[in-house]
Amino acid sequence: MNRGEVQYSAYTSNPLGSSISVLNLAEVVNEKVDASSIGMGGDSYLQVLCRQSFPGPLTSGSLGVKELNRWIDESIMNYRKGEILRLLLSLLKIACQYYGKPPFGSDATLKTPIVHGMDPVTPRFTAPAKRLVLLIADGLRADKFFEPDSDGNYRAPFLRSVIKERGRWGVSHARPPTESRPGHVAIIAGFYEDPSAVTKGWKANPVEFDSVFNRSRHTFAFGSPDIVPIFCSALPHSTWNSYPHEYEDFATDASFLDEWSLDQFQNLLNRSNEDANLKQLLHQDNLVIFLHLLGCDSNGHAHRPYSSIYLNNVRVVDRIAERVYDLIQNYFKDNLTAYVFTADHGMSDKGSHGDGHPSNTDTPLVAWGAGVRYPVPVSHNHHSENIVLFVDKHMHDMPTPPEWGLDGIERLDVNQADIAPLMSTLLGLPCPVNSVGNLPLGYVSFREVEEVEAVLANTRQILNQFLRKSQLKESNSLHFKPFKPLANYSWVLDQIEYLISVRDYEAAKNLSENLRSLALEGLHYFQTYDWLMLMTLISLGYVGWMIYLILHVLQSYTLLPVNFFEKEQVVNLRNNSGKVYVAGCLFMGLVCILLLVEHSPLLYHAYFAMTILLWTQIFSEYQFIKALWRDMQRREIHYFIKLIATCIVSVFVLEILVKSFMERKLYTWCFLFVGVTASIYLFYLIPWRSGVPIFVWLSCWFLSIFTLMPAEIPDNTPLVVASGFLIIVIGGVARYVNKHAGDSRYWLSLTRDMKKSKFPMLFQLQILLVGFSSMMVSLSTSHRTEKQELLVLHQVINWLIAGFSMVLPLFSAVGLLSRLTSIFLGFAPAFLLLSIGYEAVFYSALALALVAWILFENAILCTSKVNRSPTSINAMEDNIIVAHDDRQLQLSDMRIPLAFMVFFNIAFFGTGNFASIASFEISSVYRFITIFSPFLMAALLIFKLLIPFILVICAFSAITKLIQVPLLGCYFLVICCSDVMTIHFFFLVRNTGSWMEIGNSISHFGIMSAQVVFVLLLFALTNVYTKDIQPRSRKQFTRKAM
After folding, report:
1. C-alpha span between 692 and 682 (Å, rounded)
2. What's the confidence (pLDDT) of residue 697?
């Protein structure tokens, strides 16, 4: 379709969404599906389950996802050591298919609030306005709109005159995620999408919902291609147009986008003078005119909200509002137009949004025209009466800032969802059937009886949602528990009608508002109806998952099974496991039947199936557990002391990591402490002349600096360039150490490559690319700043440098230090080109700390070897070496996954707050792309965040090769550690308090939940770089030490 033409859309009434196809457990029990699924054990059921279709972005069919699923399928079929890893891989695939989530979790806290089947409530009053103009300035902060500039002049003189002379004003409080789509849905449809809706994209609606546009006679909309089609593409009674995506260029002043929307509307009015049908349509009632103004958002991202470009865009928006008002007044000349001006979200100081910070949630609201009250003078203390309206009650109950110059005019703050019923009331339309907004009566100019009727219509609409949810839950529950406060709702409605009939309007209004509040509480009650059951089920699932992993590690990666065979003479530990599987399948089938009777969501089947399956697997190992208990009884007291101490230290470290999500400065104290204690320990373990203790101390203290720095990274291009030279220095020193420090036994396993690189000049080429990328950082930034654009040549060069440099480590020497140095240099150009400030230095600090970790483990390895006689060394190799020359895990090896968790999490939070959506600094991608492309930009941002994790996992893999412990065994211990933190975060998830607190609690839980899949995928990626690493062999090391 030609974008230059006004678009008329086709409407479809089919609801959007998808279904989850989960295998019926009863069919599994009756062998109607996959007859082999029971005979092979519990993992087979999940193999069948993971072949079913789950909704989610990872099922979209992209090449990377197909390759991932194919790899998992092949791994499931080819793994020959037993069913344990097949089970884990099956769970991984299900997790990947369902939004990358773990098998347990989100439905207890996140669920769409939308239900269908309610009838709209037609208001019983005359509409004060024939048409409504909605102006949404995307990304406009309230303070930047209301406050004066440095010269004392206000940036929005027209709208300030409206506030003072003929309208009402306030602050509209948005709810996280403060993104464009959820914000516009709240304004136009009147309900809040769950926080996960931000991950569902801009283009398509996750579910179908009602809106003010749907209820209008006709809607005219002009603006962004990412917003307007959401509401108008399937609306038959709409006329809309949007500009091409290529217009959204962050390297230019985006205020012209706002002018484009105005020009489209002006052209529409001009065409109506020649088109009689269009003119007749424009003079109908119940019209909505929507102008989406994207300029502030684009300029805020590109130049920050305190820049002159952003602040000037506020003036542009004000002039557009004035011109729209003049056009409407001159065209219709009937004073029957209502105007609403607001924003979908604000903008943080660093040019991002998404979280619940006041700079993101506070947006301006100005209403005037037909049906809107005139300003009311008020005292300074009047604002406190509006506390109940606020989403973040304790954060926004504050007086109007004096610098706004509006403290003498009554301010009426609203929740963002309250705007939808306000617009519906002004047009005399039914409120959107999914709206949860409260009509702000302070904005409308009605007679007393009309006020009561407006509130009653709003109440009935919310009550209908409650009744529909109650009906659905009652029809699907064997034991239904109603919401008792609304048991007599029909009597209350009759009482309201009686009070209206006797003209006791004040009492009728109060009773309607009370009923509305109870209906909202009832909606929340049914939204969390299954909360206790899901919390219990999910907790059992996580506990079972951890117990099962621990049993697997004990069986496959320790000496315990060997001891049991020797001491207990157990021929087959699973003789009677078949009975356990039969009992588990029968119980699973019974639960499935009950869920089917209750018409429970199919995802509930998956939750129950996974939990029952895990506990069935645990109980099938009862003979091993019995043998383990007998073995524990034979142990001496010092073993129990060591075991208890390890558990206490592990839990303590993990709880510190949990606390660090809220207070990142804990990492500073952590690395200051570790730097001192590790250095002292090494000082008594190895000679100080080796340099290892001092290096460990300095590297830990260097890394500790970054968590003291602000989470909002300030721009500092010279620091990024200097970081490039620091990376070159570190690479040069590593090269020198690799060639000259190998005579020391504390460096021997790390240096002296046994197999030289195929390309002798590879190191020099990598150094050259790092230096070239530093030069391009300076050149691209300065050119874009001065010329307000980025040359295509610069973009191409940056892409080539970043891509080519990441391939080079594959051709480096296979020695441990050589390969890790090459990986460090290989990812440095891409990280530098994506950096804007001190995070470029963090890259080097993290790498140095990881080398310190490797040296610490190597020192322990060296001293343990030297202290053993050759006979003990040979005996040890005979007894504990397993496949691929890996020894079995010991209790002391728990330090390795714990250290990995610390480094992995500081990679999350070392340069910001990864749990906050607003921490994604979009200006990081401007050296690669400036045209707005949300998915490519998001991919670049995520890749930047992945690079530190790649370094951590490469170091982790190198350590497992160095000390010869099984990588998979350590990975399973990492999963256990992650699950301990996940359970803690699961119980910290909040559904009360400010939405900033709620959003943070959900994001913390989501990060830890996804870490299992996240780490495994990164292991698969980094294995390409680390699989060839060859530390000095054990025998070579032993001869050298001796």
Report:
1. 8
2. 93
Contact 667, 707 (CB under 8 A): yes
> Which of 323, 360, 364 lies closest to 340 in space, CA to CA?
364
Contact (CB, 8 A) for 351 and 301: yes
Strands (DSSP E) contained in 201-332 are: 218-223, 238-242, 287-293
Return d(Cα 199, Cα 74) in angstroms, integer: 29
H/E run at residue 272: helix 255-272
From edge to edge, which strands make up the β-sheet containing 414-415? 7-8, 238-242, 218-223, 287-293, 131-137, 337-342, 362-369, 167-173, 414-415
Displacement of CA 491 from its chain's centroid (Å): 45
Say how many C-beta atoms besides its own lie within 10 A of residue 587's C-beta: 16
> Model confidence over 738-784: pLDDT tens digits?
877 655 666 666 765 555 666 778 899 999 999 999 998 888 777 76
782-808 exposure pattern, b = at least 16 Cβ within 10 A, e = fewer = eebeeebebeeebbebbeebbeebbeb
Output DSSP code: residue 148.
Answer: B
The two structure tokens encoding residue 647: 């558990």
Q: How many CB atoms lie within 10 A of CB 330?
A: 9
Question: What secondary structure letter does DSSP report for 21?
Answer: -
* pLDDT for the residue 75: 52
Structural contact between residues 459 and 184, judged by C-beta atoms closer than 8 angstroms: no
Q: What is the 3-state secondary structure (H, E, C) of 561-588?
A: HHHHHHHHCCCCCCCCHHHHHHHHHHHH
Beta bridge pairs of residue 340: 134, 367
Read off the tokens for 569: 């003479």
Q: Which of 108-112, 647-651, 928-932 has the lowest mean pLDDT?
A: 108-112
DSSP at 208? -
Percent of the chain with pLDDT over 70: 76
Strands 362-369 and 337-342: antiparallel
Contact of 737 with 751, CB cutoff 8 Å: yes
- What is the structure's pLDDT at 171? 94
Instruction: Please give the structure tokens belonging to residue 646.
Output: 């390890």
List the structure tokens of 493.
Answer: 């409605």
Answer yes or no: is pLDDT of 51 > 50: no
834 vs 947: CA distance, rounded Å: 11
Residue closest to 194 by CA, chosen among 686, 602, 637, 528: 528
Between CA 645 and CA 381 the distance in angstroms is: 58
In the beta sheet, which residues pair with residue 976? none
Mean pLDDT of 648-655: 93
pLDDT at 117: 83
- What's the mean pLDDT when you consider all of the chain? 79
Q: What Rg value do the Cα atoms of the chain yield, rounded?
A: 32
